[in-house]
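The records we work with from here on pair a chain with its fold. A complete example follows; check for yourself that the lines match position by position.
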Amino acid sequence: MEIPGTLIEILAKANYVAVLTGAGISAESGIKTFRDPDGLWAKFNPMELASIDGFMSNPQRVWEWYQYRRDIINKAVPNPGHLALVEFEKIFPKFTLITQNVDRLHQRAGSTNVIELHGNIIENHCFSCKEPYFGETDLPGGEVPRCPKCGGMIRPSVVWFGEMLPIEALNQAEEAAMECDVFFSIGTSAEVYPAANLPYIAKRSGAVLVEVNPNPTVLSPYVDFRIAESSAIGLPNLVRLLKQKKGLE
């Protein structure tokens, strides 16, 4: 689809741009969400694999699930959507990237100012004493690693159902939403709170609201511009036009 010239004009003058990304941008790298049917794991409810209760009732199964997810993520590579956001960071005087994804593909692509609302699947810590864990994770028979400090079970450093988001990350994200000139919602259903509230905070604070998603969402009626394409297609086109406008290529 054609990107509106008015949006390019606005972006060319923008000082501060903030972006919220969701599962859609990672799906283009072959990473499905745990809600997708996935063979062996399709029979399990997400609550059994991503909650404290699920971990406590069957820690070995939950640990095997996350090792399975890590294997998929480690084989994935950043796609053109991730790379376009690296260019965003270079173009705008101030740029903040907020993500709901736990795969760290943004950082692998080269983004540096990333706020992880839901933690990440790469790091681990002790369930009991919260100490970061840097030891072996791939133990025989799917055995759950133990904390060398207190002996507690090691868990992935992701936010599970029923857990609070990291307060510092959430505060930083809300501050970015309130202060930015333009706010992008990219590849997210805009239904998972409190992250889903960020675009509305930005809109109420006077930001221009842009959605990049091939499918309409609950946010779509409220945006100023909607790019109805995948992020791997829409974002590189946007970067190209913006660079042309600013004389950067």
Q: What stands out?
A: The CA atoms of residues 50 and 160 lie 5 Å apart. The chain has ten helices and nine strands. The first strand starts at residue 16 and ends at 21. Strands lie at 16-21, 94-99, 114-116, 119-126, 132-133, 154-158, 182-186, 208-212, 225-227.
